[in-house]
User: Which sequence fits this backbone?
């Protein structure tokens, strides 16, 4: 079987509507990281360059962040399985090199980002109410459409992120998911300037960005993470830090810092089910617990019903933000209000980065340079 036959799901057929594309010189093949079975080998190989449809842009990806969701997609350990064969990735930053006839909001040469929401229907109740992440017709980069671990990637022009010219693409790439997710979670926390937010997993890629966004938004910040994270988390703007490995009662330690009533909100970016269940107990009455990190399929949050009712606490899930959230999250980055320490590896080194992720060796975010 030929490569082009195997990769039929990657390259859409050239339709009449896309023959008038405005293009730069674009190669017919490109390098990509692809797998054919969940948990199987990650192949660094040549694949066809896709052709954008009438409403799409083709982005020459320069850098792409590596997210935990990419790892889960590769492993196939989520309830809803992604397509196969698959090129993962949804934090791709690059340059527009081609666009469909209907695209008016991007020009060739513009900087653009391909994010988790690759496209949405824009007409359902969820989209009309700016809850685009809940659109039933959404397509997701690196899951239901081919992702950004390749040199050229397609994105719907409506959902693609605009990135100002001159932006460091290696550093803005993680903002397209990690930054957006962190920022959106804080907006869902329903807290005011000067109130306490506890951020669990504050030393990770999402958590460290949440600390910075929270500081800009004027919240008091308590970071929780493991050994060797305190200096890093405090340097990002946290007011206090708890090493969970050094305390026997996390709730008591949290209340000692935030006050006897507990924090106004807790955002969990970790995959610890215990951390989730603890947070429901120590969040203050009328406070909000925001669920972001993924403990695994069938993980269940435990909340005593009487206590939940009596304290009127709120438990909310948060995925990624909408287009307005994307614009705001990028703007904070461009203005130098947030940053994320990135380590750059070659696209060909993706399997090594996933191994480091498995071993918990990553502080900040890995970004893959697609040029090697």
Assistant:
């Amino acid at each position: 079987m030929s490569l082009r036959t195997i990769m039929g799901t990657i390259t859409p057929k050239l339709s009449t509507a896309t023959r008038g594309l405005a293009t730069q010189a674009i190669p017919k093949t490109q390098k990509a990281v692809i797998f054919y079975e969940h948990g199987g080998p990650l192949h660094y190989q040549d694949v066809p360059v896709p052709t954008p449809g009438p409403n799409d842009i083709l982005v020459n990806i320069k850098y792409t962040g590596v997210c935990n969701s990419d790892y889960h997609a590769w492993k196939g350990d989520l309830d809803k399985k992604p397509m196969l064969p698959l090129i993962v990735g949804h934090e791709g930053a690059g340059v527009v090199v081609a666009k469909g006839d209907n695209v008016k909001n991007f020009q060739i040469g513009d900087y653009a980002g391909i994010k988790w929401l690759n496209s949405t229907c824009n007409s359902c109740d969820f989209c009309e109410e700016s809850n685009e992440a809940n659109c039933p017709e959404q397509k997701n980069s690196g899951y239901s459409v081919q992702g950004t671990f390749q040199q050229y990637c397609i994105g719907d022009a409506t959902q693609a992120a605009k990135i100002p010219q001159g932006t460091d693409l290696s550093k803005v790439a993680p903002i397209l998911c990690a930054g957006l997710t962190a920022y959106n979670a804080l907006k869902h926390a329903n807290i005011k300037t000067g109130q306490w937010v506890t951020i669990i997993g504050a030393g990770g890629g999402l958590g460290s960005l949440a600390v910075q966004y929270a500081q800009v938004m004027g919240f008091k910040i308590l970071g929780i993470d493991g050994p060797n994270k305190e200096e890093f988390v405090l340097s990002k703007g946290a007011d206090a830090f708890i090493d969970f490995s050094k305390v026997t009662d996390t709730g008591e330690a949290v209340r000692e810092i935030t006050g006897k009533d507990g924090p106004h909100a807790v955002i969990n970016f970790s995959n610890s089910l215990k951390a989730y269940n603890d947070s429901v107990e120590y969040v203050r009455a009328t406070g909000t617990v925001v669920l972001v990190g993924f403990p695994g399929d069938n993980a269940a949050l435990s909340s005593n019903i009487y206590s939940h009712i009596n304290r009127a606490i709120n438990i909310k899930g948060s995925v990624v933000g909408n287009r307005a959230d994307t614009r705001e999250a990028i703007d904070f980055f461009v203005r130098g209000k947030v940053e994320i320490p990135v380590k750059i590896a070659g696209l060909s080194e993706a399997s090594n980065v996933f191994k480091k992720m498995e071993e918990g060796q990553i502080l900040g975010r890995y970004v893959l340079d697609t040029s090697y």
